[in-house]
Amino acid sequence: MKKIITVLFICVYSLTSFGQDTVKTKIKEYYLTLADFSPVTLQLKYKRQIVKKTYFKIGLVSLGYSENSQVMQDPNLSPSFNTYYSGGLELGIEFRKHLTKKFSLFHGPNLSFIYNESISRRQDPLISPSDLKSTVQTYRFSIPYSLGILFNVNSNILVAAEINPNISFNHQAYNNNYTPYSNVISENLSAGVDNRLVLLSIVYRL
After folding, report:
1. Entry pTM
2. Which of the residues 29, 145, 169, 178 could staple to 47 if both were Cys, CB 3.0 to 4.6 A apart?
């Protein structure tokens, strides 16, 4: 894992240095991406051309927040309130190939870190509120590889669609103050696709 990260940073640095002398007017792109619906999850990315068909990118990913409550019909059951939020950082390099004047393919490796937390609280007048709180914290380190297509609506507006197969390492901690014996930490290594949906982006190009 450390070797892969080191190689990626060397590639980004080398391409950036080389690009200073080969591209006089560099293209810049700003992405607003819908990553999921439930809860609504967004991404904000910036891409900058470093050589003719190569871009450096950096962005905020998995930006999401939601709240909900559950009030039971049975008065003997306590209501519960749930909060979820997430956010992360991603950077990488991207290679492009023009298919037509309107369509382009892009692909490239990334490094990604995402944190999310789910908090559940119950209300019971006989029990301290701090004892009725449970949390699930997740730290996710991954190496996604982006595969996508760009469509030029006009010279400044584009639409992008992509998928991101990846290898990821997840560290998850469950904590319940009322039943501390059930607290657990789990870790796993997995391969898959970052999102259930194809990522759809509106792109502004300068």
Report:
1. 0.83
2. 29
Q: Where are the beta strands (DSSP E) in the chain?
A: 28-37, 40-51, 54-70, 80-98, 103-122, 133-152, 157-163, 165-176, 184-193, 199-205
Cβ 105 vs Cβ 96: under 8 Å:
yes
Task: Among 28-42, 48-62, 96-110, name the one with the lowest average pLDDT.
Answer: 28-42
Angle at 42 between CA 11 and CA 45, to 5 degrees: 30
Nearest to 45 by CA among 35, 33, 59, 28: 59
HSE at residue 145, side-chain half, CA atoms within 13 A, is 6
DSSP letters of 176-195? ESS-GGG-EEEEEEEEEES-
